[in-house]
Amino acid sequence: MPDLRVASTAPVSHLESLVDDYFMACRARGLSRSTIISSYGYPIRKLFLPWCQRNGVTELTQLTSRTVNELSVSLAESASKDGRVLSKATVHSYTRGIRSFLRWCKKEGEGKAALPSLPRLPRLLRDVLDRDEIDTLEAAAQTERDRLMIRILGDCGLRSYELCSLRMEQILRHHNQANLHIHGKGELDRFVPLPPVLLRRLERYIRSSRPRDTRREEIFISLRHGRSGDYEPLTPSGVLQLVKRAAYRAGIEKRVYTHLMRHSFITNCLRAGMSPILVAKIVGHSSLRMIERIYSHMTNQDAYNAMMDMIAATTRQGERPRPLAAAWR
User: What is the H or E stretch that residue 180 is in?
Assistant: First the structure.
């Protein structure tokens, strides 16, 4: 007769049960499983909980300013999987995940804990592509499919996986306007304006160049049949490789990658005078925090040009520019 005794398991601590509840709340907020795992799962389960166990921390009230300072030092001295000391950017990312969990616990009435300090990060000057470089990059692509993808990345600011999953029904037309209905990060939908020239190119590609003997609904698919007997959808890594090859053929010495196209789009919009609020809406940022990071690499020349454009615009509208001293009153 089989042994039906229940195997003994280690009891789940209160902190561990709170972590499970927190991840459930993240899912309820619409965060994807991959985001939860990468941004919160590893730092909380693999770093924070083991540190609490080693230091006898069983309740949130034990996390005083002194103990969280020890936690911050422990994170800074942690090693990655290959044995190297974690970078400040990685420690910053892990600390943000832990702080988010502790803030959620406080909001849920589970006890107030001191928050570990975020390490100070240097402001990096992000290298971006200007409009001429994007044109050169597009011209160096070998097929119309590749040229269209580069143009959409540069003119619409999509993420690479959003481009790969783009389907024909996501092209919405209304009178003389067109938008891309994007299902973005965090399961948030947004509408991205599609320039008329790009719309016509997309329609021509779908009508004339895209393979017709396929059941795939994605706009951009492989150029040859795969193992399934049908064309395969493109992957973000595949898009990255084609962008890199185009950059090599174009002779662009900057490090070019798909997300750089998105950063370039945001930068070019801001330099053209577009409102940061509209830019955030187009690219799918829920707050202006990411836009503020993009601002960090914009130069004094950008600020000067924007100021001069504003003065010129108000002058053309018949308003006499006032002296700066008067404008500040």
Answer: strand 177-183
Residues above pLDDT 70, as percent of the chain: 80
Determine the Cα–Cα distance for residues 109 and 176; give it in Å rounded to an integer. 52
Q: For a pLDDT cut of 90, what percent of the chain falls above it?
A: 35
Q: How far apart are the first and last CA of the chain?
A: 92
Rounded Cα distance, 150 and 157, in Å: 10
- What's at 296, amino acid-wise? S
CB-based contacts of 99, cutoff 8 Å, min separation 6: 115, 116, 118
Whether residue 320 is predicted with pLDDT greater than 60 in this model: the reply is: no
CB 311 within 8 A of CB 299: no
- The pLDDT, as a whole number, for residue 261 is 93
Distance CA 118, CA 89 (A): 10
Q: State residue 298's pLDDT score.
A: 56
CATH topology of domain 131-307: hpI Integrase; Chain A (1.10.443)
Residue 3's pLDDT is what? 42
User: d(Cα 306, Cα 12) in Å, to the nearest integer?
Assistant: 57
At residue 271, the pLDDT reads: 82
Q: Contact 11/58 with Cβ under 8 angstroms?
A: no
The pLDDT value recorded for residue 118 is 85
Residues across the chain: 329
Q: What is the mean pLDDT of residues 200-208?
A: 93
Rounded CA Rg of the chain: 25
d(CA 99, CA 115): 6
Tokens linked to 260: 């750089």
How is the beta sheet containing 177-183 ordered, strand by strand?
171-174, 177-183, 189-193
Q: Answer whether 263's CB lies under 8 Å from 153's CB.
A: no
pLDDT tens-digit readout, 224-282: 887 888 888 889 999 999 999 999 999 999 999 999 999 899 888 888 888 888 888 89
Q: Across 88-195, where does the E strand assignment appear?
A: 171-174, 177-183, 189-193
The residue extents of the domains of the chain are 14-107, 131-307
Which pair of structure tokens corresponds to residue 221? Answer: 């698919």
